[in-house]
Amino acid sequence: MGGTMDGTKRQRRGDTRQRIQDVALELFAGQGYEKTSLREIAEHLDVTKAALYYHFKTKEEILVSAFDDLTQPIEDLIEWGRDQPHTLETKQEIVRRYSDCLAGASPLFRFMQENQATVRELRIGERFKDRMRGLREIVIDPEADLVAQVRCVSAIFTLHAGMFAVQELEGETEEKRKAVLEVATDLITQAHASSRAS
Hints:
This protein has 198 residues and is an all-alpha fold.
């Protein structure tokens, strides 16, 4: 039943570094970055502060490493997408893979949503914008008309909205994820059709 999220969590759990990231992100998202101390993170992990210190010296190091690790799949996807032909199949595959990337990184996005000032301060925001730019480049046909381009950008936003806005709707998490992906895929398909028609 659990779907992909539990799978990623389980596979990440074995690694101390990743456990630190996961617990820290949960605390940062739940009570705010400023209010969370390294000691508290250590207590939640049931390790000494020295053991935590062995992996990370500061909260910022934990956050930046979690950001890098959890958004690496997006980076990989952008690299992959750049080498693909601009076909509809490619774009649908990009949207599908991006949906998976977001599911794997959902604790990070929850944190970013709740702690926007910290995100700006730590320059994670800038790096995230770069990733988004890269993603737009592989999804949008530069020669497509404006409406088609807006549809492509909307497909990406739809996947983002799926992590927050859609949570209020009825239904199982996995069902919602499928529904969001379907809408995003429809937008990409329409964009492709209209840019071919013009």
